[in-house]
Amino acid sequence: MTELTHDSKLSPVALFTLTFVVAGFGFILIGPIIGFFLSIPFMEGSITDQLPKMADPINYPEFRLPLYIMQGSATLIGLGLLPSLFWFSVEGKGITSWFAGKKVYGLMLLTTLVMTIAFMITNSVFIDWNSHLSFPESMKGFEDWARDYEERAEALTKYMTNFSSTGEFLIAFLVVAVLPGFGEELVFRGMLQPQLFRATKNIHVAIWASAIMFSAFHLQFFGFVPRLLLGALFGYLYYWSGSLFIAMFAHFVNNGFSVLMLYLNQKGVVDMNMESTDAAPWQAVIIFTLIAVAMLYYFKKFYDQKREQLDGQ
């Protein structure tokens, strides 16, 4: 299993809290502000003309590229650059240290690819269930807020993935698949999960707590459970392999496959509707769940054997 602990000047609670604050502040405020200024050359009209577009972008197709830039900046700077600079200043740990000495096996990348796509079919059951979840009457206010936020988030996602050209698809692929795979895994698995392990001394608590934080960070409570399960999957892949790149790759496959299928669906190449919250047919769920479990077992066994070989040398 990967070594998730390290000597630190700060307590795990302090390092966890400060990392989360830096990442949240960077993602919500600093990254988008920098992205806004970077996107000015691609805006139509004056800066003041952009205010209504930022408030309600789905009614302004011409604002899609600036929005891509702002979203990409939020992820790259907020979840990549700023937390990395914080860790370097406090821990003296550069971003390359998460990858140094971690061999990546091509066979395991292929296993992760198959496993992640198969798990998406399994997860469709939880997507269906969670999207139709009802809260008690005492929580009606929260349910109304959460449902309204979910609908606005879905509308924004459809707006960002309604590609008018191949160029827009490629930019969206970068913003929706590549950058989140890097930034979110760096923060939630690379930085936060080890601190939770330091604090609790229980890797399973650390993985699931990090997954809960990961899902809550998106503020989409009618997709909370399937995103939680994905976060746990990425956490175990990181723990078993010792390679953060594997977790990033799995995250990239999950997001990238969805974006690719949306694009191909819009082109009329495939009939698969990735925007649907309906569960896959039960026969497909059973088959792909068995595939996902088999791939998980093979993945863990592979790395267990590699560790035994290293221990025996």
Describe this protein's structure.
The longest helix is centred in the middle third of the chain and has 35 residues. This protein is globular. The two termini are 17 Å apart. Helix 1 runs antiparallel to helix 3, helix 1 packs antiparallel against helix 6 and helix 6 runs antiparallel to helix 7. The protein has ten helices and no strands. It has 313 residues and is mostly helical. The mean pLDDT is 91.
Keywords:
10 helices; 313 residues; single chain; mainly alpha
Helicity range: over 70%
Indicate the structural class: mainly alpha
> How much of the sequence is in beta strands?
under 5%
Q: Could you name the ranges where pLDDT drops below 50 across 5 or more consecutive residues? A: none
Give the number of DSSP strands.
0
- Outline: globular
Order of helices and strands: HHHHHHHHHH
Count of alpha and pi helical runs: 10
Oligomer: single chain
Concise structural overview:
This protein has 313 residues and is mainly alpha-helical.
Question: Layout of helices and strands, plus pairs?
Answer:
Blueprint: H1 12-39, H2 51-55, H3 64-91, H4 106-131, H5 140-160, H6 166-200, H7 203-217, H8 224-241, H9 244-266, H10 282-311
